[in-house]
Amino acid sequence: MYLKKILRPPSTLALRLTLWYAGIFTISTLVAFGAFYLAISTVISKHRDLDLRGDVQEYSAMLVTKGIGEVKAEMSWDALSDGQEHTFLRLLSLDGKELAATDMSAWRSVRTDSQALEKLKGGADYVLETLDLPEQEFKARTVYGSIGPDLVLQIGESLEEDAEFLALHRTVFIPVMAAMVIVAAIIGWLMARRALIGVEEVTQTAIEISKGAMDKRVPFKARGDEIERLATTFNYMLDRINLLIKGMREMSDNIAHDLRSPLARIRGVAEMGLITSHTEEEHKAMAGSMVEECDRLLGMINAMLDIAEAESGTGENTLEEVDLVRVVQRACELFQAIAEENSLTIAADLPKNCLVYGEARKLQRMVANLLDNALKFTPPQGSVTVSLKADNGQITISVSDTGIGISEDDLPYVFKRFYRCDNSRAQQGTGLGLSLVKAIAGSLGGSVNASSHLGKGSTFTITLPQLPLSHQFQSSS
Ligand code: ADP
């Protein structure tokens, strides 16, 4: 069971990252050392072979200049100076007969390789071999080379020095490597901890939020890394959620306050009908009033749902190129009859065309709501002007009237849900029209604002981002 616990992968990401880091570091260091070790051992053995061949050449030259006697004396001197247990030299005839040799007591099992002599006979300059002798602790390297007619020199050297040199590398490498792995693991651990501190902060914030601290946010450190992006996105998500919760709260408050009155009215009509009405005419009148109130209530509920949908950005977003000139013209046509009925005039100041990226239905509702208000709150003989402009990448739609106007005190609140100014209560309305205009403009990346002079008139201006010119060309061609 304990073994299982030990073998189970570590649970913290920092520890896992550290283990990966240390593991990769160890493997790459081992590979690098292996390659280095192979390279130096190759270089050492190449040098050894070159030395041996150089020695044979020197003896060959000496034989020519100084004769066989000097060669033998030099052989003994070389063996003595290198150490006879480390080096031996032999003179052989081509058929393998030993003609002279240094002290061979440390090299007793050295035999003459007839195949090597055959190769020399066949014209080879040197034959190199590695000897593994029982009396020698280390392997030895030997060279056979012709130094004269029917005269072969064999030199043998122990590889003890080379082996010790390589062994030194190995013994130095192991502790150095262990120290480096430990340092790398510590550095890796610190780096992983540092990198994951941000994640820890996000987790802590999430825990605090889950306990009810909805205003908590991940602290901003301006690191410019992925963790910061995670923190920013997390904070943004929390802001959005807060906004939605706030919207829902407002909505339920509104429902509680403002839908209660129409419901109470419906109930009142029904109650009155039960108590007072007796004839069929009276029943019909009562049912008519109730239908009217129900329609008003439905209108309010639908408007609230539309506002919520536009504000949250949910619902179908079938964005398309819409020519706002057409939208405004159509709205003016629709309201013309009402305007005439109330002795009002509608004037439109429109360009040839004006494309915007949006939803035709929503744009129509925005313009219609503003026109409806303008006509509703303008006394007879007044006028309403709709103008449309495209300038600096922005489109502005303004609806001005010469109506009752809005007081300075009321103006900041007219876009709030269910807000109705006192001077307009004589007119029918729900107080939701301007909230819907604001929500739709916002959902299309725009805004709406109002300016007004009490008793003189008001202007409502919607600002929307314009389509790029390239789109305009495409659609007009
Ligand atoms: P509604 O028109 O249904 O009352 P709105 O949200 O459209 O609701 O408007 C909110 C309030 O703003 C209106 O009740 C009115 O008091 C004021 N208002 C809006 N438009 C105008 C306008 N053109 N002139 C004067 N007052 C206006």
CATH class term of the largest domain? Alpha Beta
Largest sheet: 5 strands, antiparallel
Could you give the count of β-strands? 12
What is the distance, rounded to the nearest whole angstrom, between the alpha carbons of the first and last residues? 77 Å
Classify the beta-strand content into a percent band.
Answer: 15-25%
How would you describe what is shown here?
The protein has 477 residues and is α+β, with helices and mostly antiparallel strands. The chain folds into 3 domains: 152 residues, Beta-Lactamase (2-Layer Sandwich); 99 residues, Signal transduction histidine kinase, dimerisation/phosphotransfer (DHp) domain (Helix Hairpins, Orthogonal Bundle); 157 residues, Histidine kinase-like ATPase, C-terminal domain (Heat Shock Protein 90, 2-Layer Sandwich). Helix content is 57%, strand content 17%. The protein has 12 helices and 12 strands. The strands form 3 sheets. The protein has a 5-stranded antiparallel β-sheet with strand order 2-1-5-4-3, with helices on both faces. Strands 7-9-10-12-11 form a 5-stranded mixed β-sheet, covered by helices on one side. Strands 6-8 form a two-stranded antiparallel ribbon. Helix 8 packs parallel to helix 11. The C terminus is likely disordered. It binds adenosine-5'-diphosphate (ADP). Adenosine-5'-diphosphate (ADP) binds next to helix 10 and helix 11.
Please summarize what this structure is.
The protein has 477 residues and is of the alpha+beta class.
Summarize the helices and strands and which ones pair or pack:
Layout: H1 2-7, H2 13-66, H3 68-82, E1 87-92, E2 98-101, H4 114-121, E3 126-131, E4 140-148, E5 151-158, H5 160-210, H6 226-258, H7 260-276, H8 280-312, E6 320-323, H9 324-341, E7 345-349, E8 355-358, H10 360-376, E9 383-391, E10 394-401, H11 433-443, E11 447-453, E12 457-465, H12 469-476
Parallel strand pairs: 7-9
Antiparallel strand pairs: 1-2, 1-5, 3-4, 4-5, 6-8, 9-10, 10-12, 11-12
Helix pairs in contact: 2-3, 2-5, 5-6, 6-8, 7-8, 8-11, 9-10, 10-11
The structure holds adenosine-5'-diphosphate.
